[in-house]
Design brief:
alpha/beta; Aspartate Aminotransferase, domain 2; Aspartate Aminotransferase, domain 1; 2 domains; 7-stranded mixed beta sheet; 3-stranded antiparallel beta sheet; 12 helices; globular; binds pyridoxal-5'-phosphate
Length: 381
C-alpha cells in the first residue's frame, strides 16, 4: 500500500462503455451546443433529482455566476452568504458586481446560522446564498421565511448535496434556485460540469441564452452572456456515471459508517457529518473536527494533516482559510464576527472517501488519526 491516497478519486465507467457512448459522435460531428447527450442528460438528471426544471452548465462555478446574473440584481446590491465554503461561492457574487455580506455559521452542521441573517439585512440586500456544507442541509424552512418577509431571493450552493433528499423532496427544490457541481472530484462527475435547478419555467430560456453568449436568435444578441455550455463528451461521461451513482453512494455510505465506527468515541474528536432520519445523504465527504481547548488552536488538525501526509495520505482542510480571509478579499467587505466559521476552518480535516477506497486504508487512516489525538501530540502551548 505505497500508493498515494488523495481525498477523493474520480468515478469512471468502464473504458469500453464510454468509448461505445462517444462512438456516434464520429458520425454526427455534433460535439457541443446543446447536443443529443446534453439534452438526454438534462432529462435524466431532472428525473434523478426530482426537480421541475434543470439547466446544464459547463461547471458549477459558471452555474453560480449565471444564476446570479439571471436574477438581474442591480450593481452593488448585497448578498448574504457564508464564508465557510469553497472560494467559488464568494467569487461568483463579486464577479457579478454584487457585494458579499458574510454571515457566521452554526457549529452543529457548519451551514449558515439562519438566526444571524436578519440582523445583516439592509435596504441593499437582494438575496441569500447559503451552502449545504458537507451535504448537511441548511435550515431551508427558516431561510425561506426570512426571504419571504424581506422579499429576497434564495440561491443555494448545493454542490455538496447532489442526489440528497429531505422528507423525500429532492434538495434542488429549495429556494429560487440551487446550483450543483459535477466536477471530477464530486460524488457525481461529468469530468467538468454543473447544473442549476429551479421552478420558474421562464428561467430555463434565460439561462439557455446566458450560457450561449446571450444569443437569442441568429441575428439577435439580447444579453451580455458567457459561454457555459456542456459539451457532448462531458454529457456522455455524465450519462455513463449516472448508472452507477446509486452503487457508488452505497459504497461511500459503507465507508462513512466504518469511519464512524472507528472514530466515533474518541475524546477531542468530533465527527461533522449529520445523520438525520429524514435526509438521504450522498456521503461526499468525511469531515472530522479536532476540538480545541484541549489542544489549543488548530494545532491538532494541522498535526494530523502532516502525519497523514508523511504516510502519503492527502486529507484536505476544507475550508481553510474561510473565504472572508482569502488574500484577495481580506478586510474588503463588511466586518462581521465570524467566530464559528474561523473555528471550523482552523480545526476541521476532511479525510479520504471514495467508493473504491480499501478498508485496510481506512484502518491505516483511522489508526494515524487516533494515535495523534490520544497521544495529545500537536499541542500548541
Ligand atoms: C465544487 C464546488 C463549487 C464549484 O464547482 P466547479 O464545478 O468546480 O466549478 C462551488 N461551490 C462548492 C461548495 C463546491 O464544492
Amino acid at each position: 500500500m505505497n500508493e498515494k491516497v488523495l481525498v477523493t478519486r474520480s468515478s469512471m465507467p468502464e473504458f469500453e462503455e464510454y468509448v461505445e457512448m462517444i462512438r456516434p459522435l464520429w458520425e454526427s460531428h455534433w460535439l457541443t451546443n446543446m447536443g443529443d447527450y446534453h439534452n438526454r442528460l438534462e432529462q435524466g438528471l431532472k428525473e434523478y433529482m426530482g426537480v421541475p426544471q434543470l439547466s446544464l452548465m459547463v461547471n458549477g462555478h459558471m452555474a453560480l455566476e449565471l444564476t446570479l446574473q439571471a436574477m438581474g440584481f442591480p450593481e452593488g446590491a448585497e448578498v448574504i452568504t457564508t464564508p465557510f465554503t469553497f472560494i467559488s461561492t464568494t467569487h461568483a457574487i463579486i464577479r457579478n458586481k454584487l457585494v458579499p455580506v458574510f454571515c457566521d455559521i452554526k457549529l452543529s452542521d457548519y451551514t449558515i446560522d439562519e438566526e444571524k441573517i436578519e440582523e445583516l439585512i439592509t435596504e441593499k440586500t437582494v438575496a441569500i446564498l447559503p451552502v449545504h456544507v458537507y451535504g448537511n442541509i441548511c435550515n431551508v424552512k427558516r431561510i425561506q421565511e426570512i426571504a419571504d418577509k424581506y422579499n429576497l431571493k434564495v440561491i443555494y450552493d448545493a454542490a455538496h448535496a447532489f442526489g440528497e433528499t429531505v422528507n423525500g423532496t429532492g434538495v434542488g427544490n429549495f429556494g429560487d434556485a440551487s446550483v450543483f457541481s459535477f466536477h471530477a472530484t464530486k460524488v457525481y462527475n461529468t469530468i467538468e460540469g454543473g447544473a442549476i435547478t429551479f421552478r420558474e419555467e421562464g428561467l430555463y430560456k434565460k439561462l439557455y441564452n446566458l450560457k450561449n453568449f446571450g444569443i437569442r436568435s441568429e441575428e439577435v444578441v439580447a444579453e451580455v452572456g458567457a459561454n457555459a455550455k456542456m459539451n457532448e463528451f462531458c454529457a456522455a461521461m455524465g450519462l455513463c456515471n449516472l448508472k452507477y451513482l446509486g452503487e457508488n453512494i452505497r459504497e461511500r455510505k459503507n465507508r462513512s459508517e466504518y469511519y464512524t465506527e472507528k472514530l466515533g468515541n474518541i475524546p477531542g474528536l468530533k465527527l461533522c457529518a449529520r445523520d438525520e432520519e429524514n435526509v438521504t445523504y450522498s456521503y461526499g465527504y468525511f469531515p472530522v473536527l479536532f476540538e480545541t481547548g484541549k489542544y489549543q488552536g488548530g494545532g491538532m488538525r494541522d498535526f494530523v494533516y502532516d502525519k497523514l501526509r508523511e504516510a502519503e495520505i492527502y486529507s484536505r482542510k476544507y475550508f481553510y482559510p474561510i473565504t472572508a480571509d482569502a488574500a484577495c478579499f481580506k478586510n474588503k467587505y463588511k466586518k462581521v464576527l465570524l467566530e464559528n466559521a474561523r473555528y471550523a476552518g482552523d480545526n476541521i480535516l476532511v479525510l479520504p472517501l471514495y467508493p473504491e477506497l480499501p478498508y485496510e486504508m481506512l484502518d491505516r487512516i483511522t489508526e494515524i488519526v487516533k494515535s495523534c489525538v490520544l497521544s495529545g501530540n500537536g499541542v500548541v502551548e
